[in-house]
Amino acid sequence: MAKILITSGPTRQYLDPVRYISNASSGRMGAALAETALRLGHEVVIVTGPVPTTYPSAAQVVPVVTTDEMLAASQSWFARCDGAIGAAAPCDYMPRIVETEKIAKTGAPLTLQLIETPDVVATLGQAKRDDQWVVGFALETNDRRFRATVKLEKKHCDMIISNGPTAIDSDVNDVELLDITGEVVARVKGTKQEVADVLIAEIDRRLIRKTIA
Ligand code: C5P
Question: What biological processes does GO assign it (predicted)?
């Protein structure tokens, strides 16, 4: 049986002590993947941003807030895992300056300077050992297949799951699973639990059984 790290949910990047930028990720895909993996007897660690979703009680849940925190926790847990599934939607940008006091309204437009946050999956993909695997998600509004193959390579993933914007904050999903060569090896549309069942079965067959003696 494998020990699997799942990143899940959004991250938050604060502008000041009360305001933040984020996205509408619910953590439901991560929860569904964890549920299936646990049912098959795997151990699961979920590094999650703030979500309204309840994770399976058998999973070890590591709560984080920012993308930097998600990266640090994921790196530390990944070293003790066989593989990672990046189901999180980390905030890709953070304010260049975080104000220590609440920004006061002036009536004038407020300009924010944003800088990129680190990419968690790409960092894990780059650092993985020969006996570890990394699976990413690619959420795209257009050129889905092509953009997924670019991310597969750029983030050093062993497989990537391509899905569309209807996945966000929804109970259903419609995905394609691409193997390391970019070939579509599975297509599934249904509830996130149904999708998770197929994805974990494929990950089990194609990655876990190859790396666990
Ligand atoms: O946002 P993007 O479509 O590039 O995400 C693709 C994959 O990379 C997903 O698995 C997501 O969890 C991961 N990701 C990440 N850290 C980021 C952005 C994306 O781990 N900062």
Answer: coenzyme A biosynthetic process
